[in-house]
Fold:
Amino acid sequence: MKRFFNRVYKKIEKETLPKKLKENFRNVDEEKLEKFKRLLEEEFFKGWRGKDNFSKKVFENDLKTQLYLRLFENRYHYIPWINKTVKLKNSNILEIGCGTGSSTVALTEQGAFVTGIDIDESSLNIAKERMKIYGLEADFLSGNCLELFEKVKEKKFDVIIFYASLEHMLYEERIESIKKYFSILSNGSFLIVVEAPNRLWYFDEHTSLLPFFNWLPDRLAFDYTKFSERSNFRELYKEFSDEKFLHFLRRGRGVSFHEFEIALNSKVEKIKVVSYLKQFLVPFSVERRYLNVLRSIYPKISEGFFYPFLNLIIKKQ
Structure:
């Protein structure tokens, strides 16, 4: 798998990855990586994420993703994109949804000062250990970002990143989080959204692996999970309860430009999207045709709102 990713990103590295970014990559020896692997298996892959809930192939892939592929993706995909607009060195960054710290490593090794927030205590414990083995430092806060707002609102951040997190919030949390955290940015600073599955896209690659899933009302989507072929998903929601419904909603629902209009109290065409990350769509495929349909329906807004995932850099002005 590692060889495969090296081949996939070889061209990206040659053509788009600045040498100065690659020079900052921190390496970890195999002994430390093996120790970290055991920690992941013991501390992260438990409960509903436990090994026994997946096929062997799926579990091994998820383990590799957490071990090194996620960091690989950040280094070669997201960091070069962000750094073109926001110079990461010496930037003060608030990362909402730092998870197990792969993105935190990728940001801090480029010289950023990062405060990471995550609601999952197990993920934060992994993130702290990951930072140690890479010889890096960051501040971490555990909890819901709305509950932590009072702790961070007086701090000055050049960048606030919602990293694969907006889709895991309830609707009211999502609106309030965008609204409040955007309010503490000064003019000229940036709000960045990374990997939020787009509600408008026809296929849900994030949660259910079903077409049109994010178009469905929440309760209908819950009942429809039985048609998903994703393991450790359809089995969890066979019977409805308030607890299971909440768990389902936090697994991930789609996000679209509508939340940004409501939270920022501004028509979407007036929101200053200064950069967006293009997914690699095959020319003339159904994906490309569908993207063009969305663009034709609402040609005045940023094309970034029409890709399968929202990867946006919004500048406050």
In short: The chain has twelve helices and nine strands. Confidence is low (pLDDT under 50) at residues 1-6. Residues 2-213+252-315 form a domain with the Rossmann fold fold (CATH 3.40.50.150). The two ends are 43 Å apart (CA to CA).
